[in-house]
Model the fold of this input.
Amino acid sequence: MNRQEREAAARRIMERAGPATVPPDLYAQVLRRGGRLLRRRLLARRVAGLLLLAAVVAFTVWALTARPWVEPPSRTTPPLTGW
Done:
């Protein structure tokens, strides 16, 4: 394909009819859907944050009451040697 043929092909492509027209209410629909999506994401983030906060508070309360780091008392007495 030489240069003249390429230019002719490019002109034919540019002279074709443009794409179909966009519906007039498309912009409003996009704004509505986008706003809804942003609100859902914000709500999901807030719910996840509240759940995380509740889990941290529950774990903290459990740790302070159960004290899992303290060794439990022995159930038997050690043998008495060396009297």
The two ends are 110 Å apart (CA to CA). Helices lie at 3-15, 26-66. The mean pLDDT is 90. Residues 57 and 63 are 10 Å apart (CA to CA).
